[in-house]
Amino acid sequence: MADLPSDSSARAGSTHFMQQCSSCHRLDYDSRGQPSRGPPLGLIFGRLSGSDLHYSKYSEGLLHSAELWNSRNLFRWVKNPAHIALKSNCKFEPLDSDSQVFDLVCFLKELTLANYSLIRSMVVVGHAESEASGRQ
Ligand code: HEC
Q1: What would the pLDDT profile of 75-106 be if each residue is shown by its tens digit?
Q2: Which residues constitute the domain of residue 31?
Q3: CA 124 to centroid of ligand 1, rounded, Å
Q4: Total-model pTM
Q5: Atom 26, ligand 1: which residue's CA is nearest?
Q6: Does the Cβ of 88 fall within 6 Å of ligand 1?
Q7: Is 81 in the pocket of ligand 1 (CB under 6 A)?
Q8: In this structure, is residue 129 part of a structural domain?
Q9: Which CATH number belongs to the domain containing residue 73 in this structure?
Q10: Is residue 53 included in any domain, yes or no?
């Protein structure tokens, strides 16, 4: 069966992520785990730039940028971080084409959605467990 376009984009984007971004970025929710050079990107979509409370190494430029990480701004960032923050420490080999950048943005969006539904199901399970054991 043929994949929906967004699914195949996200799959291609995950390959670009592994090649170009994963040396510095993890895909989990926040930076409380193992330290990495860049902030984690697991819930990046819909977040404000420079707003991971557990990441302490943001540049001044990104801290003051106050952009929303929607598709457009992620696209601009991956094209060139200087579109959003001058002198950012996010440095990577440019992707070959706009369609690769688009795929990578699709991947980051799908990843955020998947992580939110995972978190929501953990909250529901946690709630059910505490009800079952009589805890409040
Ligand atoms: C050499 C390490 C490195 C690589 C490779 C890298 N980044 Fe980054 N990234 C960083 C650092 C460090 C920051 C924080 C930048 C700052 O504060 O200026 C960052 C910040 C970001 C942010 C902003 C996060 C926030 O919390 O606002 C996004 C989005 C991002 N990177 C995406 C990517 C993507 C997508 C790739 C791959 C195409 C990539 N990065 C590759 C190091 C890296």
Answers
A1: 999 999 999 999 999 999 999 999 999 999 99
A2: 8-110
A3: 32
A4: 0.90
A5: 50
A6: yes
A7: no
A8: no
A9: 1.10.760.10
A10: yes
